[in-house]
Amino acid sequence: MPLVGTGDILKAERGTGAFNVVMLEHATAIVAGAEAAGTPVVLQISENCVRYHGAAAPIIAAALATARAAAVPVAVHLDHATSVDLVHEAVGLGVGSVMFDASTLPYADNVAATAGVAAWCHARGVFVEAELGEVGGKDGVHAPGARTDPAEAAAYVSATDVDALAVAVGTSHAMLTRDAVLDLDLIAELRAAVPVPLVLHGSSGVPDATLAAAVRHGMAKINIATHLNAVLTAEVRRALDAAPALVDPRKYLKPARNAVSAEVTRLLDVLGGGILGDN
Known about the structure:
By secondary structure, the protein is α/β, with parallel strands linked by helices. 48% of the residues lie in helices and 14% in strands. The protein has 11 helices and 8 strands. The chain has an 8-stranded parallel barrel, surrounded by 9 helices.
């Protein structure tokens, strides 16, 4: 199936699952899970993932190849890029959407940098996500408990011309427990004030019922990374504990990949349970 853009997927009035890729097993598991659900999906490659691999091209090429072979629409997205050079490289490699994160900069500098990236990307047909209100728990940069102001968010989108906005409504990155409490009323206020799709980062810490409620209140794109890593790691541990002499990585990565695939299918069903903004 031809590659699609994140913007094309977000045109559907339902919650879109966006899952982070660390290695090829993530990409193939996520796509298999989306195929089982019969649902479009977004493969996300973060700046940290690129740093782990030492280069952008190999992991982006693998994700793009996996997406092209899928039986459902799949977008490939650069996540949490702070480097303009990386944005340029990823777009050159074929990525159709980017999340440019200038949230650590003062507001005026954030606007200027993000507007520049948005203009450059739009000239090349690339969808741009950005962040204003800080999301908790990412390398100590974002303030825990931060909340996005609806009026400021609307002004930021107008000033930068971005296509989607990550907002702070109660989540935190890298949570290992699923007990985050979201401000659903704030999501609804942001949905009413902001003319572009809203993105929920740090969704690994959000329980199923709240994820579905977030979609109903107006959250369009749901980013999940840590939760899938926990599923994968738990299955690897189980396989190695059951067979301590096991050395062939295919023997423990295959069941781990299958476990991730099943969880992606389940989560996509959760996100698809409500109509966007239908609260």
